[in-house]
Structures are given as C-alpha cells and as structure tokens.
Design brief:
heterodimer; A: about 400 residues; mainly alpha; two-stranded antiparallel ribbon; 14 helices; B: about 240 residues; alpha+beta; Alpha-Beta Plaits; four-stranded mixed beta sheet; two-stranded antiparallel sheet; 14 strands; globular
Chain lengths: ~400, ~240
C-alpha cells in the first residue's frame, strides 16, 4: 500500500519554499496588525452594521469549514468507498483538513465584539445554540484530523496501519458530515431569515464542502507536483476531476431546486433575497460567479477529456471552483440579511452615527473595509503557510513503500 | 406561563398612534442610547400588517420613506407600527445565544447581560423584528453627558443596564426593567402623548392588558413564526370598545 508522498526525480523546479514562505508570513503579519488596529477601534473599523451584521469574517469562516472536507474525502473515500485512486492524496488531504478547520476556528475571533470573553463558551454554554454545537464539532474534528495525520505519518507495520486507518475512516466520515451540517444549521434553523430557513442548507453545505475541499487538495497536489516533483498517478487525477465535477452538478442541482421552490411559491418575503441575486438584481454578480465562473466553466473543464488531461486546466478549474463556492457563501450571508423580514421604512438603526447622514438603513448595505480584507488575507496566507510547512514536514518522512 | 409570577405585557393601539416618535426619543433619553441607536422605532406600515392570523404577510412597503401611505389618492391608508423588543415567550435570540447572555426572566422580560455577551451577534441574525443594536465602537453622545436613569441596574447579579456602554456587546429594549421592578411603567408608556401604549400584568385577569388581549383581539406581530411576543397590537379599523 502506498499512502506516502512519492517524488519523481526527472522534472520539476527547485523548491521556492523560502520566498513563498516569506511572502505568506508578511501577509500574516499584515492580518495581525489589522486585527490589533481593529481591537483598538472596535468593530466600527469594519463595514458591518446592524442590518448586514455579519460579513467577510463569517463568509470566510463558512468557506474555511468547507475547505476542511478535502481530507476526509481523500482518506475516508479511499477506505469507506474503496476508491483506491484517491489514496495517494490521503496525507495531503488530512493535512489540509486539520489546517483548514483550525483556521476556520480562528476566523471567528476577529468577528467577536468581545474576543477576550470567548471562555464564556466553555463556562456558560447554552445547548440550544447551534453555535455551541459548532464549537464542539470543530474541536472534535480538529483533534480527529490531527490523530489521523499522526497515524498516516507514523511508522507502523503497514497491515496494522491499514487497520487503524480503516477504523478512522469510518469515524471521520460521519464526523465530517456533522461538521458541515452543523455549520449549515447556524443559518438554516433561523426562522427570521427566509433565505436561510431551508432544509436544503445542510446538504448544500456538505456538497459545497466536498467540492471546495477537493479543489484545495487538488491545488496543493498540483503545486507539489510542479514545484516539488510530487508524483501523482494519472488515475488519481481522473478520480479528483470526476469527484469535483459530480460535486458541482449536485451543488447546482440543490441551489437550483431552492430557486425553483422560491420562484414558484412567489411569496414576497421569501423571494426578496433571490430577486437581488438573479440576473437583473443588484447582487447578480454573485449569480454569475456561482453558476458560470465557478459552475459551468469548471464543470466543462473537468468532464471534457481533452481539457481534463491538462493539469494546468485542472488547476484553473480548481481555482474557479473555490471562487464559486466563496460566492455561494457571500450570497448566503448577505442575501439573508440585506432585506430584513420586517421590511418597513425607515428600516433598522445601524448603530453608528455620522452628522448629516441617516442612522437608518431600509435595505442593508455592506462594503468591507481594508481592515476586514487584511485580516482575511492574513488568515488565507496563514492557511497556505501552514499547509506548505506541513507538506514539507510530511515530505521529510519516509515514503512508506512497504506492503 | 408561570402562575404566581407577574407576566408583563404591552399593548399598542395603532388607532391612537400618531407616529410622533415621542416613545422612541423618550426611550433614547431614559436609556442614554448613543447616537445611531434606536431601541424603539415607529415603522410606517399598511393597516393590514398586524391584523388577523396572517399578520406576518407584511405588505410591500409603499415607499422607502416614512409617512407615505399605501394606495392612490383618495383611496389611501396607513398605520404606524411602533417596534421595539417583542419580549417573545419563545425568543429566537435566547435560543441562539451561545453563552446565555440573552435570557428571559420569569416575568417574561428578555434581557441582555452586558458582562457576559461575547459580541458574536447571532441574536441579531436570529431576531425577526430587527430590534437589536450592537456597540460597534465607543458610544457617541451629543451633548456629551449621561442622561436618563443614569445608574447600572442588575437583576440576579447580572448587569442588564448601564449608561456607560461597553464596546462590542449587543443591547436592546429592557421593558425599562429598572422601572417595572419598582412598580413603574416603561418610559415609552409614560411619555406617549396619546395613551397608545398600555403596560401591565397578563396574569391578572382584571388588568387592562389582559382585557385588551383576551377580549379586544389584540394581535402579535409575525405571529405565524410562533415566537409568541409579549407586545400586542390593536390593529387599525378595530377600535377599542372601552377605555377608562
């Protein structure tokens, strides 16, 4: 059994670890500085206000949680469903899962008005809150991913290792489904937001997580292939492409059924958000990003054999998939908040005041500030940096060709 | 509903409301609400908005601006809908708060503990009535001094009102907890120039609120959501039969 990282010595480039690592570290530093600035000012430094009261941090949180699916798909998919072609990417997969879920947890912190009171989550948990369930599953999932990685990387007789990995795979799969479902229920259970309040939310989150998680693993593997001569068998690429294409199809199917349900029902308060997102609405760019740029285009790239066989196009498709999934997260959060259920003039008080400007918003507005962009850029850089360092650590381990 | 406990409720008569915002400004005054904060707002609505069982079938607004009636002259209609915290019996904000900072007292008052809130704003996302306000930055006051009640107020040791707003926590209407605990009415009830607001104990069958709710068909906003608000509305065109 080969679950290690094997390199082909013939082609590839020297490893630009230092330059890339330095650049990423600078971005992390920028994010940290922006967060310190935000701590001195309060969340007034962001573009969020009382109508659209969740923004870039929450889109990004939901996005990072989704990215963590990749590992379980590679590791558990190989074991539970017998997709052997995915096995070579198991280590990278579990690595991205552990890193993504840790960064997702970190992303919540700048969103909190009182981050220093976060211990209240442990001291005074209220069990009816989906947020508490999410805290628990995130911690469990992270611990699980670290254990899984430790087993994958450890030196054990291969038969014993295979047995442990098999057990882990059967635990990990339901855990991953729960992680994405609970994150979806943070939104999906809310009766105050018709746009969120659909039973499709959990299946949608699971699907888009499989989609974006696989795309991230594919990108890491492609990077390693190009810069570090990582050998990835042809059949593995085929499996990855097939998985992403299927996930795009299921994802758009679920989103499409939701659209049809809302449009046919034609209940004004339920259609309010959709009308903003459909072509002609003021947020229609989200529709195009989700359906065309991150949907149709990568789907074609991943199913047409002539395109799929070119790794550069697989890389393009993976990036587009990530863009599409991120657009879905924006669409979800902003769409749910921009037109409040009680949509009557003068609207909602925004909680801040500037002389000569109204302190009410009838329809919500949201323009993220440089602080939010910097913090999110820092978090993304930290994810890339940790994955890179983790990969380097995995690479240093024996390739495990036994068995 | 607990039996021995007082169960506070408010009834707002839309037939009487003249949309003057005195209750909203009075609320700002007694609670020292910073600029940009409105715990209490007076929305312009169509008269049908709060009538009957399907009260949540909120009609499209006539305009983005207040005081614009629905319909075409001379067939126009309009109703004012004063909205602050509805003090729901099954409050979505209480259910989602991960740390129990938002809680419901036995008398039905929904309050926020300023010292426990972590500022995640899940309650703002969960509230169907859009009544919660977050302290985004440091409180701005104009003129720059404290007005109103002026002291901290605690219930069961929990800080549920403070004139000096801590940054990064959520706040909202408290039913003027510091006043009702000493037998006074919420300040919006006191200052309303037309007597459109009535406050009292639902557990007392002889109270005016009980009579208005039981016999005059006062309705709850977005009642189909099942939040069971403790703020009731007497819709326009259903004038109260008795008063005094």
């Amino acid at each position: 059994m080969d679950i290690g990282i094997e390199r082909t010595p013939e082609h590839g480039r020297p490893v630009p670890f230092r330059a890339a690592g330095g650049g990423l570290a600078l971005l992390v530093l920028l994010g940290v500085s922006a967060w310190i600035y935000q701590l001195t000012q309060g969340l007034i430094a962001t573009g969020m206000r009382d109508v659209v009261s969740w923004g870039l941090y929450i889109f990004t949180f939901a996005f990072f949680v989704g990215l963590s699916a990749g590992g379980l798909i590679m590791a558990s998919g190989a074991e539970v469903f017998g997709v052997k072609a995915l096995r070579p990417l198991a280590r990278i997969g579990v690595l991205t899962a552990a890193v993504s879920v840790a960064i997702a947890a970190m992303t919540i912190i700048p969103d909190l008005g009182r981050p220093e009171r976060i211990y209240n989550l442990l001291l005074h948990p209220r069990w009816s809150s989906p947020l508490i369930w999410d805290v628990i599953i995130i911690i469990c999932y992270f611990v699980f991913a670290v254990v899984d990685l430790w087993v994958l990387a450890g030196r054990r007789p291969s038969s014993q290792k295979a047995k442990i990995l098999r057990v882990l795979a059967y635990v990990g799969l339901p855990m991953a489904v729960l992680l994405h479902s609970i994150t979806a229920w943070i939104f999906g259970l809310q009766i105050s937001r018709p746009w969120w309040n659909t039973a499709l939310m959990a299946p949608l989150f699971v699907t888009s997580a499989i989609l974006s998680g696989t795309a991230l693993v594919a990108l890491v593997a492609l990077g390693a292939h190009r810069f570090d001569r990582l050998h990835v068998p042809e059949e593995t690429w085929r499996a990855v492409c097939g998985l992403m294409a299927a996930a795009i199809a299921v994802d758009l199917f679920l989103v499409g059924s939701d659209y049809i349900t809302l449009l046919w029902g034609n209940v004004p308060r339920e259609r309010a958000a959709l009308d903003l997102i459909l072509p002609g609405g003021s947020w229609q760019w989200l529709f195009w990003l989700e359906w065309v740029v991150g949907g149709l285009v990568p789907f074609v790239l991943l199913v047409v054999p002539r395109f799929r066989s070119r790794l550069s196009l697989v890389a393009v498709a993976s990036v587009l998939v990530l863009v599409g999934v991120y657009a879905f997260r924006i669409e979800l959060v902003v769409g749910g908040m921009i037109k409040p259920l009680l949509h009557l003039p003068p609207g909602i008080a925004i909680g801040t005041y500037k002389i000569t400007q109204t302190s009410f918003q009838f329809t919500g507005m949201y323009h993220p500030t440089w602080v939010e962009y910097s913090i999110v850029a820092g978090l993304m850089a930290l994810l890339a940096l940790l994955v890179t360092l983790g990969y380097r650590w995995l690479r240093g381990l024996p390739a495990e060709a036994s068995g | 509903m607990a039996t021995n406990e007082k169960q506070y409720a408010m009834v707002i008569d839309q037939n009487l409301c003249i949309g003057c915002w005195t209750c909203a400004v009075g609320c700002k005054e007694i609670n020292n609400e910073p600029l940009g904060f409105w715990w209490n707002r007076i929305l312009t609505a169509a008269p049908a908005d709060t009538t009957g069982e399907s009260s949540s079938a909120v009609a499209d607004p006539a305009s983005d601006n207040i005081d614009v009636p629905h319909g075409t002259f001379p067939d126009v209609e309009m109703a004012y809908l004063p909205v602050a915290c509805q003090h729901c019996e099954d409050a979505p904000c209480v259910k989602v708060c991960p740390v129990g900072a938002t809680f419901r007292r036995d008398d039905g008052t929904v309050l926020v503990d300023y010292e426990r809130c972590i500022g995640c704003r899940y309650c703002i996302a969960a509230c169907p009535y859009g009544i919660r306000v977050f302290n985004w930055g440091d409180a701005q006051l104009e003129p720059d001094f404290t007005v109103g009640y002026g002291r901290e107020y605690r219930t069961d040791g929990r800080l549920v009102f403070t004139p000096d707003r801590p940054r990064g926590v959520v706040e909202k209407c408290t039913f003027c907890v510091e006043r009702i605990d000493v037998g006074e009415e919420p300040f919006c009830v006191t200052v309303c120039p037309v007597g459109a607001r009535i406050f009292g104990d639902l557990n007392d069958p002889n109270s005016e609120v009980s009579e208005l709710v039981e016999e005059q068909g006062a309705t709850q906003m977005l009642s189909d959501l099942g939040t069971r608000p403790r703020v009731f509305y007497i819709p326009v065109n259903e004038p109260r039969k008795t008063r005094e």
